Amino acid sequence: MTMCTVLFTALLLALAAFAAGEKLVVCNYEAKSHLREGQGKFEISNLDPALQYCTHLLYGYAAIDENTLKLVPLNEQFDVIKDNYRHVTDLKRRFPKLKVLLSVGGNEDVVGEGDEKNEKYRKIVETSTHRLAFANSAHTILKGYGFDGLDLAWEFPETKPKKIKSGLKKFWSSVKHTFTGDHVVDENAQQHREQFTALVKELKSVLRPDNLLLSLTVLPNINSTVYYDPRSLAPHLDFIALHAFDFYTPQRNNELADFPSPLYELIDRRGDENIDAWVKYWLSNGAPANKLVLGIPTYGRTWHLAGESKVDEFPITDLSGPGEAGPMTKEAGLLSYPEICTKVTGPQGNRPIDGQFKKVPDATKRRGVYAYRLPDKDEKGGLWVGYEDTETAANKAQYVKNKGLGGIAIDDLTLDDFRGICGHNKFAILRAAVSAL
Ligand SMILES: *[C@@H]1O[C@H](CO)[C@@H](O)[C@H](O)[C@H]1NC(C)=O
């Protein structure tokens, strides 16, 4: 054997060992990322360095036609006419073990407002005729484009954000009882819960004969207790991705910032605003641990920091809405990991260097990291960002390992450092999480 074949065999063995590690690495891919400009533009070829780590790739997102209630492409032009569905499922030729699923919903298919927002997601489950038509339309699309399955990133109504009555804002501890968070958002929630189980059962029986997979993504701020019955859903699902993050976003909480995705309960927060609470709900209600995969975001949520805000008294009050958009993502209130890593300074020094963020690491390994830049004399440029970095992503993967969960779900690849701007390696968050599994 030449040196070359020895190395090659070693490589194959290493890859096989990785595959046998059995943990799922679900990688979300947001197709809309091709619309970003400059360094933020993400093309199919950018996926390559990530795919050796992913067991599943979720194509985000497909939509539901309001009138027919059938599954349809969200962006016909790009997905179908420009053949992006095909380009993505064709990746399986080079990555034969990869499973590519089409994901529907994901807060990308939002129609209507108020009580009518995303009504179609409730209408589908309500009658067996609609459920069957949806299942058949999904089957046709999956088969037609070579997908391995369907992911339901179902857009049930979100919980209402916590509000603090104005005037008392500064006295956080004394206003704990004035939350107005637990409104009823869906009067037929109980029926929808049962009907969703029926949808999942019926879908699986349509998909099973072709060995097509079915998974559920629990979107942020959807109350699992209300909509999902773990014990009756789990047997029909291949995995359940818990997107336990975005508990606080500048869109939901305009003047209030907090850790977007803590691992454990923090003092004075609602008991279900942490990862551990979500996992406990699913486990104690009959979901097998190996079917649960934990969502790990690759971005941060930002708020505009005003003069009066205290940056390290949580939750932070007196903020004025979403922080300014980043140069690559161009979306107020959001920064991708590479947008953050290029701005953040280390923990040295007491104050942020001009124009840069000061990072405050998480010694507790419970809450997550944040960074901030104080406003200047003219009240400009202040920003607070709660985010995920390689360390917190690894902590979450470690949690998955300790609890014997099925794996992780990276949300999403296009906001990770896919160009390797932050360090030597591309996809730093994905890699950090995978190595800790
Ligand atoms: C979720 O639903 C449960 C049961 O209805 C309720 O007790 C809890 O307060 C809800 N959580 C949120 C954040 O609304």
From TrEMBL:
Keywords: Disulfide bond, Glycoprotein, Secreted, Signal. SUPFAM superfamilies: (Trans)glycosidases, Chitinase insertion domain. One of its GO terms (molecular function) is chitinase activity. It holds the Pfam family Glyco_hydro_18. It comes from Phaedon cochleariae (Mustard beetle). It comes from the Eukaryota. It is found in: Secreted. Residues 23-437 form the GH18 domain. One of its GO terms (cellular component) is extracellular region. Its main location: secreted. One of its GO terms (biological process) is carbohydrate metabolic process. InterPro entries: Chitinase_II/V-like_cat, Chitinase_insertion_sf, GH, Glyco_hydro18_cat, Glycosyl_Hydrlase_18. Belongs to the glycosyl hydrolase 18 family. IDGF subfamily. This is GH18 domain-containing protein. Residues 1-21 form the signal peptide. The keyword Glycoprotein applies.
